[in-house]
Write a structure and sequence with these properties.
Elements (H helix, E strand, L loop, with lengths): L2 H8 L4 H23 L5 H8 L3 H27 L4 H21 L3 H5 L3 H4 L2 H15 L5 H36 L9 H10 L2 H8 L23 H7 L1 H4 L1 H28 L3 H32 L5 H17 L8 H19 L2 H7 L6 H29 L6 H49 L3
Helix pairs in contact: 2-5, 2-8, 2-9, 2-11, 4-8, 4-19, 5-8, 5-10, 5-11, 8-19, 9-10, 9-15, 14-17, 14-19, 14-20, 15-16, 15-17, 16-17, 16-20, 19-20
């Protein structure tokens, strides 16, 4: 029996098609991260343009995206579970490119706040669509590896984003000088937002060439096992996992993401580094997490599996989150830029290990019909908590730690607190996680067996 026949029998595409689609999803994530992170290199220029405080910049960096995500994530997740995911993703990509450009053209603080939802809200559609599609592109036995590639690609995008953004910000004045049609006084930070949005439509066009994968484990594909179709009812019935896991993951991500939003500004203020230098240093530091985390996570996964663990992904998360407290605690003690960047590299590695199996967990705790909404819900929780963490660092810098190292002290307090809470919540989740996963996997296996047996020989 050929691979094509097998693919028709169980509904999964060929490995070649699945791999190409995965590569495009990783590229899309990279562009989304670049569009989101360019703002961290221009915090002080934006503050100067609009006369803002650190706390106000925390709102622009954190809550401008958070508000949009909180309102729109669940509708997008609902749409992803019902309509063509590829088409939805393409439309969202074009929309976030337009909004990113609008951020660069904003003429007031209020105007920059709302268009700023573009760079930060790429995830509204991107992650629900990607996680849902990935579960239908690769068979269950291949999903842990496929998810590891996806999250590894997302981690690599951090390195690419910081190197590219730092260079673009530094080169923006020279680019503006070559464009005679721009109005006089067009600020370099505005050009950076325009430049990072340009590749998005091209990748969207490439994505349109890929087929939409057929959905697995759905009641309307002939499955004999009915599946829950109401997310609110499903989430409440399994609240000890569905409600608490996104909170735990978000608290862990705060330890890295909220810190990352302020790290370039802290390096500029405390050690007088310029944007290009910062981009290279943070880029190489991020590379430690981007390149090493998937290997470390895979090694730990296999080790826990050999020891008989049926939920090695949670064991990895608890261990890495606990260890991440140590580098987060050293920011306030930093005496030079190398110390700060080294601490960030270790923190990034450990938090990336935590998130390496996040997509896999989201796929395991939600049936196929609800994966888009499950991912969207997790994004809402993460956005609210991360946005709050970004704002809190700015607030503490303005009102509590006002000395020369105020930002670094604020980063330490927020990072350590969030990581400790995350480790404790993940540890608590372990008692309720496995029964839910077992039930979903039984339903999916029954659905696939029914479809295969019902297909013509």
């Amino acid at each position: 029996m050929t691979e094509t026949t097998i693919d028709r029998a169980d509904g999964y595409p060929s490995l070649r098609t699945a791999s190409i689609t995965l590569a495009l999803l990783i590229l899309t994530m990279t562009l989304g991260y670049i569009d989101r992170q360019v703002i961290v290199f221009v915090v002080d220029p934006i503050r100067a343009s609009f006369s803002l405080t650190d706390a106000q910049m925390g709102l622009v960096q954190g809550f401008s995206a958070t508000l949009f995500m909180a309102v729109m994530s669940m509708p997008f997740g609902w749409a992803v579970d019902r309509w063509n995911r590829r088409n939805i993703l393409v439309v969202c990509m074009l929309a976030w490119a337009v909004m990113t450009v609008a951020t660069g053209l904003a003429r007031s603080h209020d105007a920059s706040f709302m268009p700023g939802t573009g760079p930060g809200s790429a995830e509204v559609c991107l992650y629900p669509a990607a996680i849902s599609m990935l579960a239908d592109l690769f068979r269950p036995a291949h999903r842990p590896t496929a998810n590891l590639f996806l999250i590894g690609g997302a981690n690599v995008s951090i390195m690419v984003a910081y190197m590219l953004c730092g260079t673009l910000v530094e080169q923006s004045p020279a680019i503006i000088a070559q464009l005679a049609f721009l109005p006089a006084g067009f600020e370099p930070w505005r050009m950076a937002f325009v430049l990072v949005a340009l590749p998005v439509p091209l990748v969207a066009a490439l994505l349109m060439l890929m087929p939409e994968p057929s959905r697995q484990g759905r009641a309307d594909t002939g499955a004999v096992v009915p599946q829950e179709s109401n997310f609110a009812r499903y989430a409440w019935g399994n609240r000890r996992v569905i409600m608490l896991y996104p909170i735990a993951l978000a608290l862990c991500v705060v330890g890295l993401d909220a810190t990352l939003q302020w790290l370039p500004t802290a390096l500029t203020r405390n050690f007088s580094l310029h944007a290009g230098e910062i981009g290279v240093k943070i880029g190489f530091a991020a590379a430690a997490g981007a390149l090493l985390a998937p290997f470390v996570a895979n090694l730990l996964f296999k080790r826990f599996k050999r020891r008989g663990s049926r939920m090695p992904e949670l064991a990895i998360m608890v261990l890495a989150a606990s260890l991440a407290v140590l580098p987060a605690a050293t920011f306030a003690l930093a005496y030079d830029a190398l110390h700060v960047v080294a601490a960030f590299a270790v923190l990034g590695l450990l938090v990336c290990v935590v998130t390496s199996y996040n997509f896999y967990v989201l796929q395991r705790i939600a049936p196929g019909r609800l994966r888009g909404q499950m991912t969207a819900f997790a994004l809402v929780v993460r956005a609210l908590i991360t946005g709050g963490g970004v704002w809190l660092i700015g607030y503490l810098s303005d009102h509590r730690f006002t000395g020369e190292a105020g930002l670094l002290s604020s980063m330490t307090l927020v990072g350590v607190g969030s990581l400790l809470c995350a480790a404790m919540l993940l540890l608590y989740l372990r008692r309720n996680y496995l029964p839910l996963v077992d039930r979903i996997e039984r339903e999916e296996a029954t659905s696939t067996t029914s479809r295969t047996e019902g297909s013509p020989a």
